[in-house]
Known about the structure:
Elements: H1 2-6, H2 13-21, H3 27-36, H4 44-51, H5 56-62, H6 66-69, H7 72-91, H8 93-96, H9 99-112, H10 121-127, H11 135-160, H12 165-174, H13 181-188, H14 192-204, E1 208-209, E2 213-214, H15 216-232, H16 235-261
Antiparallel strand pairs: 1-2
Amino acid sequence: MLNSLHATHYxxxxxxxxxxxxxVTHPHAxxxxxxxxxxxxxxxxxxxxxxxxxxxELVARHVPAVWESxxxxxxxxxxxxxxxxxxxxxxxxxxxxxxxMAEAARLALRATEACSRGARPLYAAHADLPVPEEPHLAYxxxxxxxxxxxxxxxxxxxxxxxxxxxxxxxTHTATGKGMxxxxxxxxxxxxxxxxxxxxxRLRERGLLEGPGELTERGVAxxxxxxRETDRLxxxxxxxxxxxxxxxxTELGGAFVHAALTAGAYPADxxxxx
Length: 273
């Protein structure tokens, strides 16, 4: 739910417009810049490590060259403008200015108080950024912190499970909840032959069968990955408490539903096809 709200800006025309205004025009460069800017003007190695499931060669085509077009500070400011425009367009000015939005921001920020920086580079970098004053941007900022906190822990779990970045995507897609291959190819830099090779490796391990269906072992592994990710990420929600989590879920669910109804994501983003 929080990730769904956070990620709306990645598919928003507002992001390309605002980044283009500071000299970052290629869609891949935009993506790498906005998510890694909190880390500073880092190189391709740091971005590939933190993002995990992008092909290194794609990252290296745009990083660190993107920092010659705009500084991390300029990128972060452009990102904030894009998020503001995106949320206003998807949710409407009334929802953005509502008491519910302010309440959601307070709850989400309270949850972040229990997040930890250790071994979580993307979370830690974003946690050093100031909290925006406007409630809808504060809520988005908190959603970003919680999303990156969970994501950093998730990568540790994937490594422990012996899945590289592409193998993780192949198995996630096989659950029907991951990104469709066409989007993996267009956004992550992988090709069909890379996907096929990863699929073969997973078949050899007994995790996939047929054209790309999870075996019982594969299903069990994906379920264990989610359980362990949840375990590593439980502190913020234990800190918020059951009532707070329930209320944040209720509020956030309404915002996400509105965003989805407004066309926040491509219809063919998820699935096996």
